[in-house]
Amino acid sequence: YFAEGFTGLGWETELHLLNDNFEDANVEITYLLDGGAPVGRTVVVPAQSKRVVDARNPDEGPGADVAFGVRIS
Fold it and tell me: What is the phi/psi pair of residue 46, to 5°?
């Protein structure tokens, strides 16, 4: 859990995910929006690598101008 994130003007929230296993990892990210329904995303972190998730990108996060908390599993 991360208590807060924001993608408004002048702010960026990135999630840096590390997979040190020998198999790809499916990671479920739930953005807990301030005043809205949760937004779920699933990303793959390849084996033995790192992936950066940009919360401003609507394919990976809730998009621009949003306040949120995050749950990652």
Answer: -60, 155
